[in-house]
Design brief:
mainly alpha
């Protein structure tokens, strides 16, 4: 059902519930009846993942490479940025602008990525903590390395300043960012677990109330 167009969700859910109830599958029918309709943005993401899973997985892999390049200094940053942006724009082209925020949220958080791949979102994912990778992968214009011909034209290269202290601060800042990111992911994971427990408890209450109504002949 979560792969259907949004305007077909309610009718399909109700039809499935009726068929299960006629077949005597009351518990399953109650479970289906409790399914909530997703938002328009979440429905667009669910359809995108179900219809283009390989591209979505490639995008998430590109986001991991970019995170490694940004935070841990692994790999080529420029190449990782290019691959990430191309993968993101490909998916936005397939699913429309409503999917962009959820994709960017999944790119920076493993728990969100897991929820994205389940393709059963009820609402759009929100970027965690320090926001989207795109916000941190902006290449300022005019900063491409100079070619040999440009170097010859403008004379010999000046001596490089001693940047060892600045590089040390950058390493420490990256370590702090990694630690903060880990803590933030754990907090989001705990929140997600609590939310799922709450939804399960609500569904159990509704199921018990319906069963009680049936026993009372209502």
């Amino acid at each position: 059902m979560y792969g259907l167009p949004l305007d077909e969700f309610t009718a399909a859910r109700n039809q499935a519930e009726r068929e299960l109830r006629k077949a005597g599958e009351r518990d399953q029918a109650d479970t289906i009846k409790a399914l909530r309709k997703p938002t328009a943005g979440a429905a667009a993401v669910n359809r995108l993942v179900r219809g283009h899973q390989a591209q979505v997985e490639a995008f998430l892999a590109a986001s991991v490479r970019l995170r490694d390049a940004q935070v841990a200094g692994k790999g080529d940053f420029a190449s990782a940025t290019r691959d990430y942006r191309e993968a993101l724009e490909t998916l936005v082209g397939l699913g429309g602008e409503p999917v962009r925020a959820s994709l960017e949220a999944a790119a920076v958080d493993d728990e969100s990525a897991h929820e994205l791949l389940r393709a059963r979102l009820l609402r759009e994912l929100e970027p965690a903590g320090f926001g989207s990778l795109s916000a941190h992968a902006v290449t300022p214009p005019g900063e491409a390395p100079a070619s040999p011909s440009q170097t010859a034209k403008h004379g010999p290269k000046r001596a490089e300043p001693d940047d060892s202290a600045a590089r040390a601060r950058l390493r420490e800042a990256r370590k702090a960012l990694m630690a903060a990111t880990g803590e933030e992911r754990q907090a989001r994971r705990r929140w997600g677990q609590t939310q799922r427990k709450l939804e399960a408890a609500q569904a159990a209450v509704e199921s018990a109330e319906r069963q009680l109504d049936r026993l009372r002949g209502r």
